[in-house]
Specification:
Shape of chain A: globular
Radius of gyration of chain A: 21 Å
CATH class of the largest domain in chain A: Alpha Beta
Number of helices of chain B: 24
Oligomer: heterodimer
Distance between the termini of chain B: 80 Å
Number of domains of chain A: 2
Distance between the termini of chain A: 57 Å
Order of helices and strands of chain A: HHEHEHEHHEEEEEEHHEEHHE
CATH topology of the largest domain in chain A: Rossmann fold
Helix content of chain B: 40-55%
């Protein structure tokens, strides 16, 4: 008999091993079909190409946006500064994201931000209004009479806060957060190094009220906020990175061109990659550790499945 | 008669047209500032402003060169400006109809007052004081429109929409209607002014005088009317009466300017504003308006020598009266002037309180406010920056672009971004990190200078609850701070801010600060 002989016991053990392995590791990794990483990091290339590639590596935009969806694209439009100074999100990234949303079948894409300087100035000089409109999105100024008070039942410090109505679940299907990686003195670090602004901080753009009060106890407040309002996809713009004098900046000397796009659905993992890109250890940022501790995502990058790629 | 009815319709059309243009131009004074016509067109057409400001500031102000058009028009047609163009005059006509006030064309005993006002202003201008900010009719309407009428109107519109935003079924279509207009036609943020009531009261007072008789202001108080009367009292185009007049007195009774002499034949061309009402009301059709040889004008100015001298003395007397009122240092130190403003005395001498700068500022940073007595009676309604109500946008120099009189010098954006309006101070009793020993840094976050003017010290601190923590304590770097006030505006404390701006270190146009700083 040329057949290999397996006993009944060997068969049962082997089958059980495969079954347990499948459950533990996930079928994709075991059988090598369509691996969808948690985070993709694309370096080099144009901002638009890098953004597109980052989404392709994550399985494409239709992995996140379904046909007929109403999508909120939330870039950072906080400041009345020129394109390239790293205070606002790169308009090319915003435009590419909107284009991909429509390719995935989105019915409507809305773009807005609660700005720090005068809204029209910010929308215009950031280049985002023009870019988003050219891609077919609706660009709106947020209206002070359209905020709803939202409760945060698991909030440690933040119990209730006004949030922009259009960004609330029920009024939209998906929310795509596009922060710009930059220096910001507010988020505390364990090491005492200057803080960094990323996806969590960018969520403040859909808050209303006296937002300055969020600053006292920022680390707890922002995590409390994201226990209820979470982005479905976060895309970090690390193309022009403001190293000093953030979050507003204004000097080209403070900007470093890193030409990097980081994308993923795990808000904590994406921010952690952003922090790493800035040159810090992820758990140095206190709000990230806090978010990780409360189960909003994964801070340990060794356990986050990441695909990195460099475009030429 | 029918002939003049057509002309009267044309006159009313002209009045409505210029009133609308006035408001459209004023509304156009907003970010991003554009449009083919200067928004201060009416002020530039005002010869009273041009002449008296030039005298008071000892400079020929060419920005008022357009007012020559009005002077030439007046030399030919008399005070046609007052009857056909002046938006304040039109406002009175509308108010008169609503209030049913009567012409009382025979009440003429107070009409010389306006020459006293003009002479007083002239004498004061020679002594380098301009009182135009109180008396000029176009400035008056500009100020009332900016400070009261437009904010009132926008509030009404915005509130109506805001109500619909909370009604489930119609909220989305209502917002869809509203949002394309927001920031384009409807201001994004509601203009709010601390002292708008004082502006309104002044305006209501003048309107109330209309109850005495029509066009009271124009007949008896308006210095621009007086000046145009001087230019136009021998105008060739005039009212003439044919010999078939039966002296029914209707024209004289119904003259809203009281310009018809009691012989019904002669007209006071220093007062006639060519409204044409007399030609229409005349049952005999004997009144017409035409170019005619110069007729004798009845005592056009009603000014005796005693009144001349009295007016001049009043002009001299009022200047020290106003100039010797001052406010406390504390109030005026919190009253920052717009960037590019002339040194204070020159500034007050040039600023006519038209509120063009306030209007344009309300569409962007929103810090400029008409003051009341913060800078003295002398500075009433002059623009001051209230940094708790708004702040000076780092990328904006629009106020300097709209100033019609040059009280705010036209400065470039680069100049503005390094020119100090004042400086920021931390109130360490109120500022959150000093008071609660908690991080805050909203001011540092917003500080717009490329290298931050607000920095912070990290110090290990014992908190009220006994724990030890690193706290970021903010401070100001004087050499970088331009006093834009965004820190004061954005401070999350309720009421008084934990950081505030004063005029210390300010750099007015043509004047650099001498204060040396070390940091």
């Amino acid at each position: 008999m040329a057949y290999p002989i397996i006993t009944r016991r060997e068969f049962v053990t082997g089958a059980a091993t495969v079954a347990v392995g499948t459950v533990l590791l996930g079928p994709n990794r075991l059988f090598g079909t369509v691996p969808v990483p948690d985070v993709s990091v694309v370096r080099g290339g144009s901002a638009a190409a890098a953004t597109r590639r980052a989404l392709e590596l994550l399985g494409g935009m239709n992995h996140y946006v379904a046909s007929g969806d109403t999508v909120i694209v939330k870039p950072n439009i906080g400041w009345d500064t020129r394109v390239g100074l790293g205070a606002d999100t790169n308009p090319e990234v915003v435009k590419e994201v909107i284009t991909m949303c429509f390719e995935a079948g989105a019915k409507k894409v809305k773009v807005f931000d609660n700005t720090c300087n005068e809204p029209r100035r910010c929308y215009q000089s950031s280049g985002i209004e023009a870019a988003a409109k050219s891609a077919g999105a609706e660009v709106e100024f947020m209206n002070e009479n359209r905020y709803d008070q939202i409760d945060f039942p698991n909030g440690v410090r933040l119990k209730s806060w006004p949030v922009y109505r259009d960004a609330l679940p029920g009024n939209r299907d998906k929310i795509i957060n596009i922060p710009v990686l930059k220096h910001h003195s507010l988020p505390k670090t364990k090491s005492g190094k200057p803080g960094i602004s990323l996806g969590f901080k960018n969520m403040m753009g859909i808050m209303g009220g006296n937002r300055g009060q969020i600053h006292n106890g920022f680390e707890e407040n922002i995590v409390d906020f994201c226990t209820v309002i979470r982005a479905d996809l976060t895309i970090v713009d690390a193309t022009n990175v403001l190293r000093r004098n953030g979050p507003r900046g204004g000097r080209l000397a403070d900007v470093e061109k890193l030409d990097t796009i980081i994308a993923g659905a795990d808000m904590v993992a994406v921010d952690a990659w952003g922090v790493k890109t800035f040159g810090y250890e992820p758990d140095d940022l206190i709000y990230l550790s806090e978010a990780n501790r409360r189960g909003l995502g994964h801070i340990d990058l060794s356990r986050v499945v990441t695909v990195e790629e460099r475009l030429s | 008669m029918a002939h003049f009815q057509r002309w009267k319709n044309l006159r009313i059309g002209s009045q409505v047209f210029f009133l609308v243009v006035f408001f459209v131009l004023l509304w156009q004074a907003r970010y991003p500032l554009g449009g083919p016509f200067p928004m201060d067109l009416f002020l530039r057409l005002d010869p009273l402003l041009g002449i008296l400001l030039s005298i008071a500031s000892r400079v020929v102000l060419l920005s008022f060169a357009l007012s020559l058009i009005i002077i030439v028009l007046t030399l030919i047609f008399g005070r046609a400006f007052c009857g056909w163009i002046c938006p304040l005059g039109t406002t009175f006509d509308v108010a008169d109809h609503l209030m049913k006030s009567r012409a009382h064309g025979t009440r003429i005993r107070t009409r010389w007052w306006k020459y006293v006002v003009l002479i007083g202003l002239m004498v004061a201008a020679i002594l380098s004081y301009q009182g135009l900010w109180f008396f000029d009719p176009l400035v008056l309407l500009d100020r009332t429109a900016t400070g009261v009428i437009l904010p009132w109107f926008w509030f009404l519109i915005k509130e109506l929409f805001a109500t619909t935003f909370n009604i489930p079924v119609i909220q989305n279509p209502a917002f869809g209607l509203y949002n394309p207009l927001a920031g384009v036609i409807i201001p994004l943020s509601q203009p709010l002014f601390l002292h708008s009531m004082s502006i309104l009261l002044f305006f209501v007072g003048i309107l109330a005088l209309e109850k005495l008789h029509r066009r009271f202001w124009c007949r008896s108080l308006c210095p621009l009317g007086a000046l145009l009367g001087v230019f136009g009292h021998r105008a060739p185009f005039q009212r003439t009466v044919k010999s078939d007049c039966n002296e029914c007195a209707l024209c004289r009774e119904n003259c809203k300017m009281g310009a018809i002499h009691k012989d019904y034949d002669r007209t006071n061309r220093a007062d006639c504003i060519l409204c044409l009402n007399c030609a229409i009301i005349c049952p005999q059709d004997s009144i017409t308006f035409e170019f005619a040889s110069l007729k004798h004008s009845p005592a056009a100015f009603d000014l005796t020598r005693r009144r001349w001298i009295g007016a001049a003395v009043a002009g001299v007397a009022v200047v020290p009266l106003i100039k010797t009122t001052r406010t406390t240092n504390q109030l005026s130190s919190r009253s920052l002037r717009p960037p590019g403003a002339l040194p204070e005395d020159l500034f007050l001498n040039r600023c006519v309180r038209c509120q063009e700068c306030v209007q344009v500022c309300s569409s962007t940073g929103g810090c400029l406010q008409p003051s009341l007595l913060e800078t003295g009676w002398d500075g009433c309604w002059s623009p001051i920056a209230n940094m708790r109500m708004g702040y000076c946008e780092y990328q904006c120099n629009l106020c300097s672009k709209v100033c019609p009189s040059g009280a705010i010098h036209k400065i470039t954006l680069e100049d503005k971004q390094s020119r100090k309006m004042g400086r920021a101070f931390f109130d360490r009793n109120r500022c959150i990190p000093y008071d609660r020993m908690e991080d805050c840094l909203v001011c540092e976050e917003h500080c717009p200078t490329p290298e931050k003017a607000i920095l912070f010290d990290v110090r290990e601190t014992r908190r009220p609850d006994g724990t030890i923590a690193d706290v970021k304590f903010p401070y100001v770097r004087l050499d970088r701070c331009i006093g834009c006030g965004i820190c004061e505006y954005i401070c999350p404390l309720p009421g008084e801010s934990g950081v505030y701006c004063t005029r210390e270190n300010e750099e007015r146009w043509g004047q650099k600060t001498n204060i040396a700083f070390t940091s």
